[in-house]
Write a structure and sequence with these properties.
Elements: E1 13-18, E2 22-27, H1 36-43
Antiparallel strand pairs: 1-2
């Protein structure tokens, strides 16, 4: 893995673009509870999910 010559910080915006597909934008957060749904999905992959927490109150 190459070394990185930059550091990401809380509130930085990470963007990934794929021609013909679109751009994904994700703000960095220090709120680790925002990823609780991911830990649960890994621990219990077949459990039904009734909701998912989105950053900043956004919805898909």
């Amino acid at each position: 893995m190459p070394t990185l010559d930059f550091t990401l910080h809380t509130h930085d915006l990470v963007e990934t673009s794929i021609d013909g597909v679109g751009t994904m934008r994700n703000p960095l957060t220090d709120d680790r509870t925002a990823l609780d749904w991911l830990a649960e999905a890994i621990d219990r992959p077949l459990a039904p999910r009734t909701h998912r927490a989105y950053a900043h109150g956004e919805q898909p």
